[in-house]
Amino acid sequence: MKALVESLKATARVTDATDIRAAFAADPNRFSRFSTRLDDFLFDYSKCAVNDRILDGLDALAKAARVEDKRDAMFRGDIINITEERAVLHTALRNRANRPVLVDGKDVMPDVNAVLTAMGGFADGVRSGSLKGATGRKITDVVNIGIGGSDLGPVMATLALAPFHDGPRLHFVSNVDAAHIADTLKLLDPETSLFIVASKTFTTIETMTNAATARAFIADKLGEAAVGNHFAAVSTALDKVAAFGIDASRVFGFWDWVGGRYSIWSAIGLPLMIAIGKENFGRFLDGGHTIDEHFRSAPVRENIPMLLGLIGFYHRNVLGYPSRAILPYDQRLSRFPAYLQQLDMESNGKAVTLDSAPVEFATGPVVWGEPGTNGQHAFYQLLHQGTDIVPAEFMIAANGHEKELRHQHELLIANCLAQSEALMKGRTLAEAKAQLTAKGMDEAKADRIAPHRVFTGNRPSLTFVYDQLDPFALGRLIALYEHRVFVEGALFNINSFDQWGVELGKELATGLLPVVEGEESAEGHDSSTAGLVAALLKASR
Ligand SMILES: O=P(O)(O)OC[C@H]1O[C@](O)(CO)[C@@H](O)[C@@H]1O
């Protein structure tokens, strides 16, 4: 692998692959050669520094890393999450073909379908008003209490699918900061509120603390007996949910083979289903499923998640770019960058291989971003003229939902395309100077100002185009990025499905709580931590 990467570096140096601008000038067909489609879904990677030799090299890399074998092992239900000894089967949750999927010799599909049916019944009941609060009133507000994968997916997707939202209002409480739940409870009438406690493990301190606060809110206002009508839960730990006091008929299970950050397709999607209805939720699963079928069968040069992963690896390990920007030109995807942060960084922010050895490559990059056009007026300065190169990943719908405001959508499209064009083309010193002198600036001043107005160009970007942001398109987009993370993880030879890196901070927080509460001394902690505790205790009222 290392040798193949070195050879790719050499190829990138000696060919003119890295001069994207020149590659466009030399080849009028570059777009059609380096873009691919899945129905209405278009993936353009022509504005990346690739050519056929680079892509062949990446293909060889994928073969050497046995990416396709690893992919098949995932779909088959092999124990690929080796540190937790689990299969990885979020794909079974959207297996609309209903093909048997075996875990320990048992087909999981009947259980998957049974939970989906139960979710549908519950969602219908809440939406229609047949499932009421304890005082007989219809539920108007649903509050999801969860964090990480038990929050980000439903939050992101609910915002994304706002035009399809015809169920009760949704709220999301995740942070242990009391401000989050307090600000939410202020908006609610307890008689018409339903809380969904969403936690795979049902031990996460933030979620359990917020759930206890919500429980007290209902019990205080409506009496202890009302709690049952105002709570539901989503978890793999059904015994712990029962201990919390939520009736089994309002508990929706999933399985240890669904990672938290891959769980939007499971019962964790219940709030989304309540918002948009079970039919639309089904379309969302359909979208994910079409990408699974595509990922499993398309040849590398037509396989969008495979190409996306290979180009991601190329940017990180051949060209050495440390981050990637997710730039949806779709305001309703405003939380998509945050969602991808967890998906990508919790999956591939690792330093040990599957053989428990130090990794030989730079693993997952920093993932960040904001929707356009807002980002243009904030951080795009650095994207265009900063000293780091940040590959940009643009996404845009051909059609907005606001037909009557088509001109605004056209403006959005123009901005999206202009940004990728500007990143690629840039502006030379001569062009900058000519512009200034054309406006009447004298030569000496133009010489001084022009360097500030140079854009080096040759900055890579990818663009996704879809017809319209609907449940199907969103399902596709998420599944696509899930598989990209898989491909990159396979190339890094790491386990993308555990998250031990979040444990140490959790352990230390548990140890620090009695110190912060003033019940234990800070002795044994470093002087900075002890000093900060002392300052906070002194200032606390
Ligand atoms: O659903 P749970 O078990 O409450 O976990 C929430 C989140 O916490 C994490 O384990 C990280 O701390 C994530 O992987 C997960 O999505």
TrEMBL record:
It catalyses: alpha-D-glucose 6-phosphate = beta-D-fructose 6-phosphate. The keyword Isomerase applies. Its main location: cytoplasm. Its EC number is 5.3.1.9. GO terms for cellular component: cytosol. Coiled coil: none annotated. The active site is at 346 (proton donor), 377, 506. Keywords: Cytoplasm, Gluconeogenesis, Glycolysis, Isomerase. The keyword Isomerase applies. InterPro entries: G6P_Isomerase (IPR001672), G6P_Isomerase_C (IPR023096), Phosphoglucose_isomerase_CS (IPR018189), SIS_dom_sf (IPR046348), SIS_PGI_1 (IPR035476), SIS_PGI_2 (IPR035482). GO terms for molecular function: carbohydrate derivative binding; glucose-6-phosphate isomerase activity; monosaccharide binding. It is found in: Cytoplasm. SUPFAM superfamilies: SIS domain. One of its GO terms (biological process) is glycolytic process. It holds the Pfam family PGI. Pathway: Carbohydrate biosynthesis; gluconeogenesis; Carbohydrate degradation; glycolysis; D-glyceraldehyde 3-phosphate and glycerone phosphate from D-glucose: step 2/4. Catalyzes the reversible isomerization of glucose-6-phosphate to fructose-6-phosphate. Belongs to the GPI family. HAMAP family: G6P_isomerase. This is Glucose-6-phosphate isomerase. It comes from Sinorhizobium sojae CCBAU 05684.
